[in-house]
Amino acid sequence: IFIYSSILSLLMSHANVALAPKFYRNSKYIIGILLLALSIVFLKRIVLVFVIILLDFFLCSLRIRFNIRFIPFDSVLFGLIVASYYLSPIYGIVIVSSGMISRLIFGLIDTSNLTKQAIFIIIVFIVSAFNHVSLPLIGLASILLVYILEILIQVFYFGRLAVERIHYRALNVLVSFFGFSFIYAYVAAIIS
Question: Is the per-residue pLDDT at 32 higher than 90?
Answer without folding.
Answer: no
